[in-house]
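Notebook, student rotation project (T.W.).
Task set for the rotation: take a protein with a known small-molecule partner, predict the structure of the complex, and write up what can be learned from the model alone. Partner molecule chosen: S-adenosylmethionine. Sequence and SMILES entered below by T.W., checked by me.
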Amino acid sequence: MPDMYEIYDHHAARYHELVQHEDADGELRKAVYEIVNWRNTRVVEAGVGTGRVTGWYVKYITSALLLDRSEDMIDQARNNLSPFLHRLTFRICENADLDRMKKQVMHPDVGNLGADIFIEGWSFGHTILDAEAAPGGGIEERCDQLVHSAAAMIRNGGTLIFLETLGTNVETPEAPVPGLARFYTQLEAAYGFTRREIPTDYVFDSVEQAAELCGFFFGDDMAADIRARGSERVREWTGMWTRRV
Ligand SMILES: C[S@@+](CC[C@H](N)C(=O)[O-])C[C@H]1O[C@@H](n2cnc3c(N)ncnc32)[C@H](O)[C@@H]1O
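Predicted structure of the complex:
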């Protein structure tokens, strides 16, 4: 089984196959539409992946700057979003280097107004856990940096939206590891983000497909558990953290 970074770097098409089955009931998609009016907005999306979330809002917006560290994911996103390429700018970018993208969102007519919406999905969490694993384990410092970099790209009155995991193949929403729990607590306590917990269950065509695709991404234990339970629905929870700048 490849690890997650190997998947992002070399198996983007299979990753996209998996996420096509996620949020089968459309709850997250509905929440993303409800939280802000996307019409005629300028958007920055970090960790765009294969453009799954982008595909929800792209028809409404004026433009989007789409960022990811993986070329393979960006290639897939470009392919998936091909009718809208005239509105989209893709850039390879590490989340830890977001500041370098600031000049890209300066409005050409009005100086440094910034974009209207910043969104990221299941990407900052990776950067937080990488920081935890590094010597010194600076989760809080990395969280500060990510929030400040994202906010710096947004105009006053704009919106920050962070989507992160609250567990896959579990019955109740909860941060799956302590490092993410610390990240989520800091977003709420230090920065005033509001959390909404949303069911984003996967529904597959068969139990075997559920086991294979979830096993590919989440590991063999999950595949075995899915086979044992024998359901093509895999429970999942996603947190949506939002804040006006
Ligand atoms: C779980 S995927 C989510 C992709 C997409 N947002 C979606 O909804 O399917 C995580 C994405 O974040 C990217 N990513 C992970 N760590 C990153 C980092 N440090 N800097 C930039 N992108 C990163 C990966 O390449 C991958 O495309």
